[in-house]
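Case study: YtzI protein.
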Amino acid sequence: MTYTIIIIVSILIVLGIAAAFGFAVNSGYNYKHTVDPLPDDEGEKNVEHTRENESQKS
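Here is what the predicted structure looks like once written out:
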């Protein structure tokens, strides 16, 4: 009788952990990942910065 209760409780714990794992994986796949857009003037700043570095090397 005692072993039966221990087996049942053990199975319930394993099923609970498996359900939690499945929920976490499902939530991760449902998360919408976004990327912040680059600022428009960033390219211009890089060009100016490169020109300043080249003029300092000369």
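For the exam, be able to explain this: DSSP finds two helices and no strands in the chain.
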